[in-house]
Structures are given as C-alpha cells and as structure tokens.
Design goal:
Layout (H helix, E strand, L loop, with lengths): L1 H9 L2 H11 L2 H8 L7 H20 L5 H16 L10 H74 L5 H6 L11 E2 L7 H13 L7 E3 L16 E5 L2 H13 L6 E5 L3 E3 L7 E2 L13 E6 L1
Parallel strand pairs: 1-2
Antiparallel strand pairs: 2-3, 3-7, 4-5, 4-7, 5-6
Length: 301
C-alpha cells in the first residue's frame, strides 16, 4: 500500500511525457528533428523551463547522473520541440569572420573614395594647367602683336628717314631761295652762238641763289643736239654736276617754274613737264650723259 502511494506520489505528468517521447518510434522522432528551430523567445524560454523541470525530476527520482541526465533531457526536449542547434547561437569564429568582412568592405569603400578624390584632384589640376597654358598663349600672341606693330612703326620711320636722306643736301638752301634776285653772272659754254636772253637770265638766277652752282660748268648752244627747240636754238642749258647738286638745281626750277619760263626738266633719265606733275622715266639713250645722270637738262620757253 505504501509502495503504491509512494508510486502515486512520484507520478508526474512531465515524466509521463518524457516516457512517451522515449517510447515513440524512431521514424516519428526523425520527422520531429527535421522541424526548423523556432525563432520566438517564448519557445526558447519554454524549452529551457522544461529542461530544468526534467533535470529536477531526475534528481529526485534518483535517475542518471546530473550531467548525463541534463544532456539527455535537453536533447529529448529539443527533439520534442523541434529545436535544432544550428542557428541558435553564433560562434565567436563566425563573429570574427563577419567583423573581418565588415572591415574589408569599409576598407574597400575608403579606398574607392580615396581613388575618386585623387582622380578629381588630378582633373582639377589638369584644368588649371590647361587654363594657365591658354592664358600664356594669349599673352604671348598679344606681346607678339605689340612687337610686330612696333617693328612696323620702326620700319615706317626708317623708310621716312631714308627718303629724307635721299633729298638734296641743299634743299634747305633751295627753299630759302624765295626769289630770283641776281647777284652773279653765269658763265655758259656755247659752241653755236649765244643763248637766248631768258636762258641767260635763268642761269644767272641759278648761280646767284643755289649754293655751289656758280662753280659748275654750264653747257649752252651746240648744233649737234637733236632737239631743234633746245640747244641749237639757245633755249636749253646743261648744268654738269653731281647728283646732290643736280637735285638742288632741279628743285629750284620747280619752285620758280614760271619766273624763268621753264618748259621741261630732264634729270637722271626722267622728265618733268610741270611743277605739280610726276617724273616720267625715259628710254635708255646709251650713256650716263645722254641719260642725264651727270647733268640737269633745262629747256625754257
């Protein structure tokens, strides 16, 4: 009787559940093991409570050793609840792997950002260098234009100076000779009679107003001349002189064209028919004297 009561007092529903689970066929247990582990905290708490209860029952009833009973109870309850060990906890190795992955990802991101920043800096530097080169090119072109303009001005000034240098040495004296006042008598070499009075008066005005003209040789009449209205008729003179003196004599006659009655001037193979006209080049007559390079030919009316 006492044993029956003791047995009844020791009877526990949890123990019956444990025995029922132990007696359950293996193929049904394998189906239970394939159930995925629940992810609810309530399920985990319930499982832990049942494990603790079973462990306490085993201790009271004198069951297996504590360690072995805990392990068997835990496995049985876990199997009954369909809890698998995988996925419940993450091992330190997995934590370290995840941290390494995060660190590698961050390092890669930082490297990509650094590369992008370096590329941007290089692009900006290239743009600045291109801008500086363009500005330098424009400045060089502007400086070259200024130099070219200065060179052109210098060339123009040199041309003007050369033109003035080619002017007669006695141009100032000729300009100062504003009259035909006669202070000297010209000596004219004639071989065919005397020259006309207007021709003599013109020669006297030249030697009186053109510096140095009184010392030159003046050719008058000669019958060999081809122009009958010139030397043969006493209306032409040849002032035999160097180019600078010849320029002065020609300029004097241009300035006083009507006073001595000039018809035309021939000087250095050129002819002038009026004081405001243009010198015209003549044909080559074969010699410096015939082309009047060494004398000024003056024809009067």
């Amino acid at each position: 009787m006492l044993n029956a009561q003791s047995h009844a007092a020791r009877h526990d529903p949890a123990a019956d559940a444990h025995d029922a689970l132990a007696a359950e066929p293996r193929h049904r247990l394998r189906r239970r093991n394939r159930i995925s582990a629940p992810h609810s905290r309530i399920a985990y708490s319930l499982g832990i409570s049942m494990v603790c209860a079973l462990a306490a029952i085993d201790l009271v009833t004198g069951g297996p050793a504590p360690a072995t009973a805990d392990e068997q109870s835990s496995v049985s309850v876990a199997d009954a609840l369909g809890i698998e060990g995988a996925g419940i906890e993450v091992s330190p190795v997995e934590d370290a792997a995840m941290l390494e992955q995060l660190a590698a990802s961050r390092a890669q991101r930082d490297g990509e950002q650094a590369q992008a920043a370096a590329a941007q800096a290089q692009a900006e530097q290239a743009a600045l260098e291109a801008k500086a080169a363009e500005e330098a090119r424009l400045a060089a072109e502007a400086a070259a234009a200024v130099e070219a303009a200065a060179a052109a001005e210098a060339a123009k000034a040199a041309a003007e100076a050369a033109k003035q240098a080619e002017a007669p040495e006695t141009a100032t004296g000729v300009a100062a000779a504003a009259s035909t006042a006669v202070s000297a008598i010209a000596r004219i070499s004639n071989s065919s009679g005397a020259v006309r009075p207007q021709t003599q008066a013109a020669a006297d005005a030249v030697v009186s107003n053109v510096p140095g003209a009184d010392s030159i040789t003046i050719g008058g009449t000669r019958s060999s001349a081809a122009d009958p209205g010139g030397h043969p008729s006493g209306l032409a003179l040849d002032h035999m002189r160097n180019p600078s003196r010849g320029d002065a004599i020609a300029e004097y006659h241009i300035a006083h064209w009507d006073e001595p009655g000039v018809e035309y001037i021939v000087w250095q193979q050129r002819m002038l028919n009026s004081p405001g006209g243009v010198w015209k080049t003549m044909e080559n007559r074969g010699s410096p004297t015939a082309n009047h390079h060494d004398d000024v030919h003056l024809n009067y009316r």
